[in-house]
């Protein structure tokens, strides 16, 4: 029976996945306050449709960081797809390519970037800048050669968030036979060496972003910028986009939902940087609310893993197809011809005080 919504797909994935793997995907950090806040924020904003605008069938196609996409919904980077399905990132990449969606490959993918690129769709590569600049440089050259169209540099992880579900379940590392394939340096003949672990470093600074900017001509997005002052600072560093993200509630707990932080960031950067929002997007209406507050696109993390777990490539295709049709319907019902038509006038923030005429 095909899931009618991402909620149904989530339940199906939960029933299929080994509980420790389910927790690894589903969990957040510490008390999971941010994790819950992400979805809740969308439910607390209402949509007030405009009528009779005659905009015709909504168009979803867009361009982001030089990539054409058939919909403004990006696959966020998530680690370890082969824990969800044996075909892992290959299956995800095929589904994304067929849907014309941009797939952001995690640095912690369990398939090498060259093998993922075989699917032929637009790929971005997510990078944790490593203290070993030589390694980072080699990896950047490798993903350039593989045809990745942009780098998404995750900046919300100077240290790793404390994920208590994983500690309780004793999930420490990938099982034998799986590793972070992009962490295996390439030898002179392209042979892959032993995997190194990903380092998280509190010494990283804007100077490292400047260094990366000099190193590559690929567009660079910073992922995890939430403070308007950092958004403004990023304008000076020559980056090309920002992901407004709290890492799906997996890093600093009690960070508010990205949806709530979006408008001040959009104010801070104006039209100079496109914004991608991720965290809790589960419906077409959620995406529309993010567009109304200034996002150019949204990204989805966990739903892709649910789709993979339930049906491999077909499951991810189903996730994208559900969101595409929901977004088309939400735009049409709001009188919008595209995501660009969405504006704050469509939003209702609930501080409901009944008002009625007394005379
Ligand atoms: C299982 C899992 C693995 C993730 N791995 C990465 C990663 O390797 N790099 C990264 O920048 N973000 C990673 N994220 C965060 C996502 O890119 C994204 O910010 C988040 O999942 C969005 O929220 P959502 O899952 O509610 O859609 C991961 C998230 C999950 C759930
Ligand atoms: C392996 C981790 C680095 C992946 C990650 O960022 C996450 O699990 O949130």
Automatic annotation (TrEMBL):
Coiled coil: none
Pfam families reported in the protein's UniProt record: FMN_dh
UniProt: FMN binding residues: 77-79, 106, 126, 154, 223, 245, 278-282, 301-302
PROSITE patterns assigned to the protein according to its UniProt record, in alphabetical order: FMN_HYDROXY_ACID_DH_1 (PS00557), FMN_HYDROXY_ACID_DH_2 (PS51349)
Single annotated GO MF: FMN binding
Cofactor: FMN
Binding-site residues for glyoxylate, renumbered to this chain: 128, 163, 247, 250
Residues annotated as catalytic: 247
Domain FMN hydroxy acid dehydrogenase: start-end pairs: 1-352
Keyword terms, alphabetized: Flavoprotein, FMN, Oxidoreductase
Domain of life from the UniProt record: Bacteria
Xref: CDD domains: alpha_hydroxyacid_oxid_FMN
Alphabetical list of InterPro entries matching this protein: Aldolase_TIM (IPR013785), Alpha-hydoxy_acid_DH_FMN (IPR012133), FMN-dep_DH (IPR000262), FMN_HAD (IPR037396), FMN_hydac_DH_AS (IPR008259)
Entry's family note: Belongs to the FMN-dependent alpha-hydroxy acid dehydrogenase family.
UniProt name for this protein: L-lactate dehydrogenase
UniProt source species: Cystobacter fuscus (strain ATCC 25194 / DSM 2262 / NBRC 100088 / M29)
